[in-house]
Amino acid sequence: MKFETIQQFNDAQIDEDQLICVELMQEISRGLPGAESKIWHGHPVWFLDGNPIVGYSKLKDCIRLMFWSGADFDETGLTPGTGKFKDASVRYRNASQINAGDLRRWLTKAQTIQWDYKNIYKRKGRLVRLK
So what CATH class is 6-112? Predict the structure, then answer.
């Protein structure tokens, strides 16, 4: 299914997944008020100066919240990715698992700790630290 807006993505989820998506969208929008948000590669993503910062996606049994530079946040609640990138994520199966304090702290760190994903293709896969 192709989504044009984040609202369409959220509306397409059912039951608990929809509650999770709506809460994440609200918290991210509050935490990153100047960010551009859109559907990118089929999922809701927020950008600062064209650089992807945070987004979420539907997995088989959960909603995954991912921070592109989250591996450098030094946060036990985030699990670093397994590849060569600096991403880290958390998975939610229930909206009650979302800790608003943690999420706000991560969003603050996401603004001050950034790797340049916007230009990764120009650099042939090499990441450069922006902040």
Answer: alpha beta
